[in-house]
Amino acid sequence: MVAGLLLVLLAGSRLKRSSWRTALLAVLAILAAAVTYAFGDMSSAELAQQIVFVLKVFSFFVCFAALSGMSAQQLEELEPIMRFTLLAYALSIVTGAVFSIDMFRSYWADTQIRSGYKGIVYAQNEASALMIVGLSYGLLRVLKSGWSVWNGALIGSIVLASGLVGTKAAMAGTVAVTCSYFYARYRVPKATARALGVVGTLASIAVVVYLVVPGVKSAVALSLQYFMYQYGQTRGAGMLTMALSGRDVKFSNVWDDVAKEGYVALLTGGYPVVRYLVEIDVPDLVLAMGLPVCVLYLWSMGKAFLCGEGGAMPRFGKWFFIVLMATACTAGHVLVSAIISPYLAMIAVLVKRAAAEHPASREKSGDA
User: Fold this and answer.
1) pTM reported for the whole predicted model
2) Which residues of the chain have pLDDT under 70?
3) How far apart are alpha carbons 99 and 364 in whole angstroms?
4) What are the residues whose beta carbons fall under 8 Å from the beta carbon of 107, sequence distance 6 or more?
5) SS3 of residue 71 by DSSP
6) What is the Cα–Cα distance from 278 to 267, expressed in whole angstroms?
7) Whole-angstrom Cα distance, residue 363 to residue 365?
8) Three-state SS for 234?
């Protein structure tokens, strides 16, 4: 898909200068990996995987460039397809839980150490990121055009699926995105009251379901048993390790390995992250691309969401970007996922166009 979009963009000469600069960042990251391979610290298989890793990371900008070149009518025609695919992702998680489909479980067979369903997505952490982004897209649609049967069905399915994934990121992300919607739409006092009301309602429903449905009680017990085991393994001193599911330990191991080379990879990139991922996006990106390239990458992505000074949709874009980065810096599988890139790009395009149409943005443009 990414290769096809690139061909279309190049054939139509639709790439802006900023897109070429972003493409240069991707080339630099790939060259850094090639240098590491040339000096013998990376196998050919790892080089191929690292290139795929970099292309997935930059796939957001390819999708963003393609969607930015579409007219408002073309976007309207594309959005039902995006809503349908998100609904399919969410319903596969719900279906897996209802019918106990093994292939849809987050952990199954000999690895059934905790409960949860990932649906048709390969990994549960990536499914969590997809649910967060999908819910954000659904709520952005509500801000744009109001509530409808389509929007309600999509949001309801994703909220339900988020509770069934079985990860902390999915549940916390759902709450954070919902609060972002209220703070984007209302003033602080009213937003706070509504956010507390919705969160309280969701918590009450979860408690009732837990008490009434035996299967849910068993699933929760399995996950609690897993977390208590993790807590016991750290002798009660690893609350951070338990909260991050051991990612801090992975980071420590990788950091020790980077230290042996004099921390050069922090500047140049090219470290073989595919060999042993930290699974926290920012450290993985710094090691793969180097700090300067990573900073420019994050700055370019931030520009896509942090735009405009007024309007509910631009405000939601800012809140969403905060939630997105918080997830990337804790649970990971956000910036390095090609699955969520089209939806991220659609959110960015809708936010950017809403900001351009807002009176404050037009006045600022006119003054300039």
Assistant:
1) 0.91
2) 12-15, 108-113, 227-238, 309, 359-368
3) 55
4) 113, 114, 115, 116, 124
5) coil
6) 18
7) 5
8) coil
- Give 304-320 as a DSSP string: HHS--SSSHHHHHHHHH
Q: H or E segment at 155?
A: helix 149-165
For the chain, the maximum distance between any two Cα atoms, rounded to a whole number of angstroms, is 65
- The Cα–Cα gap between 107 and 313 comes to 37
Two structure tokens written together for 279:
């699974």
Here the tokens at position 249 are: 């330990």
Phi and psi for 105 in degrees, rounded to 5? Answer: -75, 150
Residue 250: CB atoms within 10 Å: 18
**Residue 333: which residues within 8 A CB-CB, separation 6 or more?**
123, 125, 126, 128, 129, 279, 281
Helix then strand then coil, in percent of the chain rounded to 5, is: 80, 0, 20
Residue of 271, 89, 190, 96 whose CA lies nearest to 181: 190
